[in-house]
Design brief:
Shape: globular
Helix content: 40-55%
CATH superfamily: Luciferase-like domain
Number of domains: 1
Number of strands: 11
CATH architecture: Alpha-Beta Barrel
CATH class: Alpha Beta
Strand content: 15-25%
Strand order of the largest sheet: 1-2-3-4-7-8-9-11
Largest sheet: 8 strands, parallel, barrel
C-alpha cells in the first residue's frame, strides 16, 4: 500500500486499562495496532499522556517499545503534558528514543486543562502548581531545543535553573519536531505561532478551525515568524459502526475515558460516530479548511476492528 503521508493512529494506551476493568491490561494490543498501521501504510502512531488523572501506560516506555518493534512509522505523543516532567529528564528520554527509532519521533505537547480537581491533583502529585503549567511548558520547549543541539546549556533562572549541561545522546534528528496543541485559547494559539513546528487541534467545527489558524497566522506575523511549513493536524475521534450502535458505543467509550457523556464531550472536541461516509465527509471538509494531517482515535472497545474498517472504507476515499 502507498504510504499515507498525512494519517496517523492513536494507540489505546488508556483504553487497554479502561477495558481491563482491574485485570491485566492487553498491552500487546498497542504493538498489534502499531504493526498493522505500519504494514497498511499509515504514516504514524501516537500515544496519549497522563499520570494519575486518566491512568494509562507510561508514554515514554511505550514509545521505546514501539521504536524497537516498528521500522518506518513516525512515533508521536498526542499530547504529552510536559509541565509534569523536568525538561532535562524529558530531553534525555526523547533523545534516547529518537536514537532507538532512528529519527522517527514527533513530540506533541500540550498544557492540559485545569477545569477538574483530578487535573489539579495530578500536577500536585509531581510538585507542580497547576497555575504554572503554561509557563513551565513554554520554558521547557526552549530548554528541550537547546539541550538537543548545544553543549554546556545553562538556564540561570525560571522554573528549571541549571548550569553547564551537555546532553548525550543527541537525537538522530537535528531537532525533534515539536507540535503544540491548542483549541480556541489565545495564549495557546500564540504559543503555537511562537514555538510550534506543528499545530494539533480537535476543534469541533471547520469554522472554529479556520478562526484558530487565522489567529496563529496573525500572531506569527506579529513575531515575524515564517509558519509556511507548519503542519496543521486534526485529532478526530471516530466510531464507524451504524448510527445507533456507533452513538451507543462511542458514548460508553467517552464515559469510561473522561467520565463525561458524549453529548458534553462532542461540544468540546471533534467526534464522528456513524457510517464511513460520515467520517469521509468530515475529513474532506477539514482538508478543504486547511488541515493537512490527521490523528484518528477509535472510540470503541474493538480497536482492531475499527482500524480495519477505517483502512478499508475511509482511506480509499480521501485522496
Amino acid at each position: 500500500m502507498q504510504p499515507l503521508s498525512s494519517m496517523g493512529v492513536l494507540l489505546p494506551t488508556r483504553g487497554v486499562l479502561v477495558y481491563a476493568k482491574g485485570a491485566k491490561p492487553r498491552v500487546e494490543l498497542n504493538w498489534q495496532m502499531a504493526e498493522t498501521a505500519e504494514r497498511t501504510g499509515y504514516d504514524s502512531v501516537w500515544v496519549g499522556d497522563s499520570i494519575t488523572s486518566k491512568p494509562r501506560l507510561e508514554p515514554l516506555a511505550v514509545m521505546a517499545a514501539l521504536a524497537a518493534r516498528t521500522h518506518r512509522v513516525k512515533i508521536g505523543t498526542a499530547v504529552m503534558l510536559i509541565a509534569l516532567r523536568h525538561p532535562v529528564h524529558l530531553a534525555h528520554a526523547i533523545a534516547t528514543i529518537d536514537n532507538i527509532s532512528n529519527g522517527r519521533i514527533v513530540l506533541g505537547v500540550g498544557a492540559g486543562r485545569s477545569n477538574n480537581q483530578m487535573f489539579v491533583d495530578e500536577h500536585a502529585a509531581v510538585g507542580v502548581p497547576i497555575t504554572e503549567r503554561a509557563a513551565r511548558m513554554e520554558e521547557s520547549i526552549d530548554i528541550l531545543r537547546k539541550l538537543w543541539s548545544l553543549d554546556n546549556v545553562s538556564n540561570p533562572s525560571g522554573f528549571y535553573p541549571f548550569t553547564g549541561v551537555t546532553l548525550e545522546p543527541r537525537p538522530v534528528q537535528q531537532q525533534v519536531p515539536i507540535w503544540i496543541s491548542s483549541n480556541w485559547v489565545q495564549r495557546g494559539l500564540r504559543r503555537v505561532a511562537a514555538q510550534g513546528d506543528g499545530w494539533i487541534t480537535n476543534v469541533p467545527s471547520t469554522e472554529l478551525f479556520t478562526q484558530c489558524w487565522r489567529k496563529i497566522e496573525d500572531k506569527a506575523g506579529e513575531l515575524d515568524r515564517d509558519i509556511g511549513d507548519m503542519r496543521r493536524c486534526l485529532y478526530i475521534s471516530v466510531n464507524l459502526n451504524e448510527d445507533a450502535e456507533a452513538l451507543s458505543d462511542g458514548d460508553q467509550f467517552m464515559r469510561a475515558y473522561y467520565s463525561t457523556p458524549y453529548e458534553v464531550i462532542s461540544k468540546q472536541l471533534l467526534c464522528v460516530f456513524g457510517p464511513a461516509q460520515k467520517c469521509i465527509d468530515t475529513i474532506l471538509r477539514y482538508k478543504e479548511a486547511g488541515a493537512d494531517y490527521f490523528i484518528v482515535r477509535f472510540a470503541s472497545p474493538n480497536q482492531m476492528e475499527q482500524l480495519d474498517k477505517f483502512t478499508e472504507s475511509v482511506i480509499p476515499s480521501l485522496d
